[in-house]
Amino acid sequence: MTQAIQCVLFDLDGTLLDTSYDFTYALNATCRHFDAPPLNYQDIRKVVSQGGMAMTKLAFPNLPESELEARRQFFLDIYNEHIDCHTRIFPGLELGLEILAKKQIPWGIVTNKPGWLTEKLMMSFLFPSQPKTVISGDTLAVRKPFREPMDLAAKECGIANEACIYIGDHPRDIEAGINAQMQTGAAMYGYLPETARSKDWPADHRFDTPFDISLFIQKTFTE
Asked: Where do the coiled-coil regions begin and end (predicted)?
């Protein structure tokens, strides 16, 4: 029997926050600086959850590996300077976050985003209740899909892994949740490639819109 959910954990980019517009600005500014053609927003959006190197490779597909790291860092420096210009909580999630606050349900974030970027971004948002835990990609020696970041998040929330649900927009997120023996939810509105299908992800729940998550939270904690 599945244990009742007592804690909600979110991936950050593409699940809790829509960071795609600020990433698009930074990546196209990097393209301009290095005389590369600008990229379409939708093309960038599909790879945001794959991280900074994947976006850098998208912009400079023919560049040798030895030169990519410097451009990735240039891109991330620009992103850092404009990290909260257009980033927003995904519309529809506000209700769910308000319910978590009202019911005093612990919640948190587990992301592969580097800590220096995660911490700065978190300073820009005042949630209805603050997350009990924020685990970044470099908080530990390993990151998702390894279970250790998930274990630490559950520990900091004071909830057993089996009573946590982890929601993310990448198969890696579902794998991480399963590895940690958590319940899982696939955020199908996130930064997914066109070929992504939830049936290919062994998640316990599917959320086609952010509001679906709010409805799930409402049903879970108010009935």
From this structure: none
Task: Confirm if 15 and 48 have CB atoms less than 8 A apart.
Answer: no
Statement to judge: residues 37 and 73 lie in one domain: yes
Alpha carbons 146 and 39: distance in angstroms, whole number: 32
**Residue 49 structure tokens:** 């959850």
The answer to whether residue 13 is catalytic is: yes
Q: CA separation (Å) from 120 to 20, 48, 71, 82?
A: 16, 18, 21, 11
Please count the helices (runs of H) and the strands (runs of E) in the chain: 9, 8
Q: Is the same domain home to 14 and 26?
A: no
Give me the domain span that covers residue 49: 20-81
Q: What average pLDDT score do residues 84-103 get?
A: 98
Catalytic residue, chosen from 13, 18, 22, 212, is 13
Instruction: Give catalytic status of residue 151 as yes or no.
Output: no
Ramachandran area for residue 105 (φ above 0: left; ψ -120 to 50: alpha; else beta):
beta
Q: Mind listing the pLDDT tens digit for each residue in 15-51?
A: 999 999 999 999 999 999 999 999 999 999 999 999 9
Token pair in block for residue 108: 């948190």
